[in-house]
Amino acid sequence: VFKHLGIYGAGQLGAFLCQAARKLDLETTVIAAQADDTATSFADHVIIAPLDDMQATHELLAACDVVTFELEAVPPDVLRELERQNAAGKVRVAPAAKDLLLIQNKHSQKCWLQDQGFPTAPFIDCSSDVTAAEAAEQVGLPFVQKTHRGGYDGRGVQIVRDTGASTPFWPGATIAEQFIEPKREVAVLVARSSVGELALYPALEMEFDPVGNLVRYVVAPAPLSSDIAQQAARLSADVVVAMNGVGLFAVELFVTPQGQVLVNEIAPRVHNSGHLTIEANATSQYEQHIRAIVGLPLGSTEQLKPACMVNILNEPDLAGAVPLAEPGMKRLNSSTYLHWYGKAPTKPLRKMGHMTCLAETLDLARAQCDDAMASLAAQKGELA
Amino acid sequence: VFKHLGIYGAGQLGAFLCQAARKLDLETTVIAAQADDTATSFADHVIIAPLDDMQATHELLAACDVVTFELEAVPPDVLRELERQNAAGKVRVAPAAKDLLLIQNKHSQKCWLQDQGFPTAPFIDCSSDVTAAEAAEQVGLPFVQKTHRGGYDGRGVQIVRDTGASTPFWPGATIAEQFIEPKREVAVLVARSSVGELALYPALEMEFDPVGNLVRYVVAPAPLSSDIAQQAARLSADVVVAMNGVGLFAVELFVTPQGQVLVNEIAPRVHNSGHLTIEANATSQYEQHIRAIVGLPLGSTEQLKPACMVNILNEPDLAGAVPLAEPGMKRLNSSTYLHWYGKAPTKPLRKMGHMTCLAETLDLARAQCDDAMASLAAQKGELA
Lengths: 384, 384
Description:
Two copies of one chain form a homodimer.
Chain A: E1 4-8, H1 12-23, E2 27-32, E3 45-48, H2 54-63, E4 66-69, H3 76-87, E5 92-93, H4 97-103, H5 106-115, E6 123-125, H6 132-139, E7 143-147, E8 157-160, E9 174-178, E10 184-192, E11 198-200, E12 204-209, E13 214-220, H7 226-242, E14 247-255, E15 261-267, H8 277-280, H9 285-294, E16 307-313, E17 328-333, E18 336-340, E19 351-358, H10 362-379
């Protein structure tokens, strides 16, 4: 029986993991870059250190019997040390370090998807002197250029529309991927436990804001035909099984106007698109992740009501709004839940919190989110 | 969306499937050998015919959009016809006909387990003139002789203790398997859905009656160390995944005194050891099976309380007892459930019904079962 969970990273995902761990009677330690990171308010113990501080890793390993991640950008030498300790039976590390190593490099991730025969947009590697014109010849125009490493929340990704000077082609290790104009972008959360249980959440639809390439709304269940929903579910399950993954994985998919389902990317961790599972599903993605990695039976993924989540970004409308004095959740009414991360508004569009609304239909849930956001903007911080 | 479930076989397992189907809004048709088979009281439509009546199969296929089995002994030519109709997209058949074909032959089942690398007792095929002495030389004495086909509830299985005349060695197609004196015989119910979800029930322990080689009691969760429980769970999950199985499967296992876990047999269907899931678990094995084959999200397998089930057999004590006028369930008190199958007591030790008790501990649940059985014997039919 595991007693102490260590978590790399201390943002809102880590905070929600700490809350779920408490429910399951696990002590928590997080490695946080900053003393005021969101999860520091929810963890039992905090190690303040950058992720590449090997001393911090040894401190974490000394305290914990199971270790996980709220983000995939953990330095490779730290991951290799975790793999060694896991192989030696000193600690359980899940998901496996090899999965993070694979996924944190977008080129290796695409190669793996292709090798395994999963449908994904065509791409070429641009590491060695491939020019924009050569990339365009291979995958067409426009195309998406992605850096091998370090992409996150819209960073490290650009759309190249012509091979002239309007979008400078990035040098260095990148891939060029055929541009898919999807009808929908959906994510399927897949939990797979250390004994092989596998549970799927109903597909989530992500709606991206054109500015900043950030998710604005997430709704669930995604409005898909039952045929497409089954394809998406099966493909996502197959991806996680092929990876022999343990833990919660978010499989991001494109649904094309022609009804094809393509894998876009895999996140080997709880996902910002899954916040609404806290209120909308019988078991949240956070609790499910912990159940999966410590070998507890998986909980029901049943969705209780249609749900909409809206991200609260640092924008002019809301600049300086502090609706809650402390990071945490406030139930604004019987079916509207405000989560506030307590982060400093250090940069435009930073995720400051989110709101989840449950209703009888997706349209009603979304309207309720919009109303609640409007009153948040009108009251600027007076909710606290 | 599936609307009409066809079931081969109409005993108590079929009856419980019909009840679960009603809950999920599916119409049911069963093929019953006799007009008074238990499930005929619970199905919406009944076809009275032997299983090998191809006309009955065509009648079933005309009515149903999804077809399943309460037993594996469906004739191969019927299975091949179902496979054709399934491949043609005219009906969904689950589990797959190939799984039943594999499993209904104990020799092919053992070969498959061995080929897949799953731990199972050593055996040899005795189809071609192998004598008892040769079998004993290969697998030791005593050994278990099993007919390739037709074994069920203790039939087609014998223990050979010496190569003399005391136990006549059966001629014909049989296997001889090393005799394992298990510390425990357990079963793990594994549900796997058409999209790849996989759910495990806590292991059940089966206690066999020495007379008749029949299960007398089943308790859950089986009292296993967490290490053995994990081994059993993982092995069972792996077996069903390796088979690419869809539906509920019961994986029967031996736990040896040395702590080895061996696969004994696979049942590609709901299982008599799983009756207690009706009251003890959030989702019964019957509902779960239907969810799995029609592609609904799997339900939670959580066990609410320790449980004991006792089979009510046709024995001198209870001969002629008819505790309920009709087949069905009666709650005897807040945690004791009597299920009566309404079968004629045609032969000794026939399963007439079962009783499930929930309590705070396995010992209390078992004591409660024994008390309830004693009053059933004392009252002989007066409960009705």
